[in-house]
Amino acid sequence: MQSWSRILKESPVDWLLEESNPSIRYFTLAEILDKSENDAEVVAAKKAIPNSKTVTKIFAKQNPDGSWMVPHRPYLPKYKASYWTVMTLSQLGVDKTDPRMRKACELIFLFQHAEGGFTSFTLKHATEEYEHLQQKKGKKLPKPITEMAQALVYEQQMSCLTGNVCAALIRAGYKDDSRVKKALEWLVKIQFKDGGWLCPYWKAHIRDTHSCFYGTICPLEAFSELPRQDLTKPMKQTVEKGAEWVLMHRLFKADHHGYKVIKQAWLKLGFPWFWGYNILRGLDILTKLGYTRDERLNDAVEVLMQKRQKDGTWLLETAPVGRMHANLEPKNKPSKWITLIALRTLKRLSEK
Questions:
Q1: Model-level pTM greater than 0.85?
Q2: CA-CA distance, 87 to 164, in Å (whole number)?
Q3: 324 has which bridge partners?
Q4: Closest Cα to residue 297, out of 248, 238, 340?
């Protein structure tokens, strides 16, 4: 790999520092140029994020109770409901110092199961759903409504969703909140025996013997957002097992069948990050967790470097364009977000 100094010299850092995108400017100053959080430029960029064009557009569609779309459906429709929107805003650098974000996060906590995981329904609304269904059918349901509603809420706890929500809440300033700690402890508890994660309560996964990349990368991202000193011993052990599971697949290859590429789609670089997976997300999270010396990263790094354009940028190859409240960037064009994340990943690798 080229030296970091050469990559940085050849890369369009000035482009990333343009004031038109304060989120990118803020992260470039802090993560690429290592400016202090107290630096005047960093402070100014951070302060400008809530009033940026994209963030303003997203908040313009927020309901008075802090939700987006249907208040009691935080998961659907995908990419526009409350869960997805909070994830997006947190990746843009919005935190709970903004009253609008704080209101949204507090609403999100209403959908946390007693065990710790986040779900798609509260018990109240799940009950209402079944009552409506019973009235619509004009006959009794096979089981008592309360029992069915409790089962639905229980089954809707998902490792990918909980990991994503935890990561968003930590970025938003809730890392010391007992509710977030409870969710992280739940993720530790449900880690699958092979070191990864899958959704343990879904009937579709009941007989699975192999973890899911989507279900695994999201919890790992949540743990990566915590300072290392805040990770408990069980959390550190969980991270080690989870990281090993991703590494044994070389980030995108089957650990059998001659290490064939599992999904070509994982080689496409995308942002923002939700339930999906791509090699840049894997590289960014693993290097943030401190895995910079493992040679099993090399295949993914090689693919990443091959995708680097002559001007030092990377393209946005995949994103749910048209499905979010605001598009962040056009597809198949030079991407400030992909370029920023690629640079910070390569920077960590060069400092190993």
A1: yes
A2: 7
A3: none
A4: 248
Residues 189, 237: Cα–Cα separation, whole Å? 12
The token pair at 36 is 């202090």
Q: What is the pLDDT along the chain (352 residues), one digit of tens a residue?
A: 566 667 767 779 999 999 999 999 999 999 999 999 999 999 999 999 999 999 999 999 999 999 999 999 999 999 999 999 999 999 999 999 999 999 999 999 999 999 999 998 887 887 887 787 888 777 778 888 888 878 777 778 889 999 999 999 999 999 999 999 999 999 999 999 999 998 765 565 667 778 999 999 999 999 999 999 999 999 999 999 999 999 999 999 998 778 899 999 999 999 999 989 999 999 999 999 999 999 999 999 999 999 999 999 999 999 999 999 999 999 999 999 999 999 999 999 998 6
Q: How many CA atoms lie within 13 A of 152 on its CB side?
A: 19
Domain ranges of the chain: 4-11+62-120+156-350
Measured between alpha carbons, how far is 291 from 352 in angstroms, rounded to an integer? 9
If one counts every other C-beta atom within 10 angstroms of the C-beta of residue 124, the result is 12
Q: Give the tokens for residue 57.
A: 């557009």
Tell me: domain 4-11+62-120+156-350, CATH 1.20.1050.10, correct? no
